[in-house]
Structure formats: C-alpha cells, structure tokens
Amino acid sequence: MKKLTISVLAASAIASLALVQLASAHVDRPTVATATTVQVKGGEFFFKLSTKSAATPRKVTFVFKNTGHILHDFSINGKKTPLTSPGKTATLAVTFKKKGKFTYICTVPGHAAAGMKGVFTVR
Ligand SMILES: [Cu+2]
Hints:
Blueprint: H1 2-25, E1 35-43, E2 46-49, E3 53-54, E4 58-66, E5 75-76, E6 79-80, E7 89-96, E8 100-105, H2 111-114, E9 117-122
Parallel strand pairs: 1-4, 3-9
Antiparallel strand pairs: 1-2, 4-7, 5-6, 5-8, 8-9
The structure holds copper (II) ion.
C-alpha cells in the first residue's frame, strides 16, 4: 500500500512537471532576445535618429516625435506610424530578422523627396 502511494505521488509529481512545461510553452516570449529603442525626430523636412543601426536579430521600437508644424509619419520595413500631429509622438515596433539597409521615409506625398528619408542599417 505504501509503495502504491509513493508511485501515485511520483506520477502526480511528473504530471505537474509536465503541466508546468506545457504552461511555460504557452508564454508569449519575444521572438528575439534583445530590444532597442530608437528616438526619431521628424519635421520639415528631415528625420533625426538617435541611432541609425542595430544588430540583428532584434526588435526595434521607433519612438517618432513630430517636431514640425504639419502632419508627418514614419515608415520603415513595410510598417508605419499613424499620421502624427505636430508635437505628438507615435511608436512603431519593428522586428528585424535579417541584416540589411532599410530605407525609412515619411509617406506624406512629397515629404521623402524633400528630405524626410534615410537609411537604417541592421548589421
Ligand atoms: Cu512628412
């Protein structure tokens, strides 16, 4: 009887270990280990980034502040912030899984051509 109790205990211990493992498998881990925040200031007609490169793989959060006097946005790697009012801030999280040079622009017509563009390097 004692032996049976022990093996039941052991079985339930193993079961709870398995549950713990299942539970942790469902935790939403970030897809990359490191994250970087880049401060972006944009106005007529420029962008200024606190850093223009990051190491891969990495999630980069661009914190775009419109320091100009008209609406702007910040677009990179197929993603963009909403149109952002003067004085306002918008954040854009982008996960870079490959090395390369990524052009960023303001998508308001004419703004990139006027200077609101640049290259962010993932090395
Ligand atoms: Cu713009």
